[in-house]
Structure formats: C-alpha cells, structure tokens
Amino acid sequence: MTVSKNQIELKTGTHSVEDQCVHSAFFIPPGCPMIDSRMVREHIEALCQFLDTKVFFMIDFTSSECILSFDALKAWGQSGDLNTYRLAEVYVVDSLADLIFLKQHIRLNKLSYPANVFQSVKQAKDWLGKIGKDHHSPI
What we know:
The protein is of the alpha/beta class. It has one domain (about 1-135): Transcription Regulator spoIIAA (2-Layer Sandwich), CATH 3.30.750.24. The chain contains five helices and seven strands, in the order ββββαβααβαβα. The chain has helices spanning about 35-50, 70-75, 80-85, 95-110, 120-135, and strands spanning about 1-5, 5-10, 15-20, 20-25, 55-60, 85-90, 115-120. A seven-stranded mixed sheet has the order 1-2-3-4-5-6-7, sandwiched between helices. A hairpin with a 3-residue loop joins strand 1 (about 1-5) and strand 2 (about 5-10). Helix 1 runs parallel beside helix 2 (about 70-75). The relative contact order is 0.16.
C-alpha cells in the first residue's frame, strides 16, 4: 500500500480524496477473475485509517478492470466501519449490464446511506450535489 497526502494506492485499486469526495477505482490483480470480499476488506481498512471525516464516495466502474464479486460489493456497502465516513455513494458505469448489476446491489442490500448509479460523472456529481445540500456539505 502506498499513501500520499490525498491518495491511497493498493495493488487492487486507488482511492483519492478531492472536494469532500473519495474517488475510487478498482483493478483486478493478475491471475484473478475479479475482486473478492477479502480484497475489498483491505480497501476498507486502508480507507478507515486514511479518512477523518464524512465524505461522499464515487466508484468508477467505467473500466473493464473494475469487476467486483457480489460478495465484495456487499462487504463494501455494508461495512459499518466505512459507513462511519460515508455520506452517500454513487457508481459510474458505462454498460447496461453494470447498471443493472449495481442497481440490484443497492436494492437488495438495504444500504444505510443514499446510493445511486449513473452513466456519467456529471450526472453522479449533480446527484451528490443535491445530497450535499440536504446534508449542508458542499461537493
């Protein structure tokens, strides 16, 4: 793991903080078909050590390298430790299959924070901006 002032880099992804928002991208390590819940727990632990206030989360799934198992998504979404820092979360996708998969994840996992899926970063930021107004937090 490499940590700088505004970024964490693990072998399976990066997280950077900008304007009260964690921007995350996951990468599949060589020899693995997808990121599993064990790998996601490493990300959760790193973020909990890195963050010190509540922020918005934006997960970028527009790369074909961002494949998480349903168990990994469940571990990410239901992490009580990570929820300490999460105001809301958006996923940005570019395929209809990912859109359906992530909407199903949100619907089935009874998340304790607002979450949504969009096909553009602009739409995701607009939605987070509206959530931020409700929480009196700029994005």
